[in-house]
Amino acid sequence: MDFHDEQRIGPHTYAITAGDAPRADGGPPAVAVRFSGAGEDGAVVAEGQLTIPVAGLADAGTFLARTLTGLAAFHGRRPSRPPGRAPNAGRPWSAEQGEQLRERWLAAAPGTPAAAVLGELAAELGRSPSAVRAQLPRQGCDPDVPGRALSESSRQVVRNS
Questions:
Q1: What is the pLDDT of residue 114?
Q2: Residue extents of the structural domains in the chain
Q3: What backbone torsions phi and psi does residue 52 show, to the nearest 5 degrees?
Q4: pLDDT digit string (tens) for 38-94?
Q5: Facing residues of 7 across strands?
Q6: Architecture category of domain 2-74 in CATH
Q7: Are residues 105 and 121 in contact, defined by beta-carbon separation less than 8 angstroms?
Q8: What are phi and psi of 117, to 5 degrees?
Q9: Is 5 left (phi over 0), alpha (psi -120 to 50) or beta?
Q10: What counts of helices (H) and strands (E) characterise the chain?
Q11: Euclidean distance between the first and final Cα of the chain, in Å?
Q12: Buried-exposed string 63-82: b where 16+ CB fall within 10 A, e elsewhere
C-alpha cells in the first residue's frame, strides 16, 4: 500500500506519505508514515517519521491530533478552523455570552420563527445554530419559542440534568 497527500495550509505545504513498513521481526503489519512541511521559500518547517501497527492507526491518529493541537496551544498557536466551522465552536460559554443570548432570545418579536432567531444569534455569537439552541435552556429560555422563558418546573428539570 502506498499513499501520498499534499496540502497547502497558510504559507506552508505539507506532505504525508505512507506505505507498508517492512517487519524483520515478524511482528504485526505496520505502516511507515513520513511527514514533511515546507514554507514558500522551500525551508523545512516540519519533518518526521513514524511506524505504527495497522491495528493502532485510528487510535494513534486521535492521540497525535490531540497532542499536536495541545502543543500548539501551549506555544500560543491556535489551529486554523476548517471552513464553515463557527469561530467559537467547542469553546465554553462565558457568563456575558449567556446573558447576551438570554436577552436577545427573550427580546425576539412574537411569532418570529425559531430558526431565524437561532441563525441570527449563531452568527452574532460565533456559534452553530445547534449550539445556540442547546444553550438556551441553560439560560432559562424555551428553545422552541423565541421570546418565551422556561417555566419554573422546566428550569428545575434543566438544573437537575
A1: 92
A2: 2-74, 95-160
A3: -125, 130
A4: 999 999 999 999 989 888 888 888 888 888 878 888 888 766 666 678 888 889 999
A5: 14
A6: Single Sheet (2.20)
A7: yes
A8: -65, -40
A9: beta
A10: 5, 4
A11: 49
A12: eeeeeeeeeeeeeeeeeeee
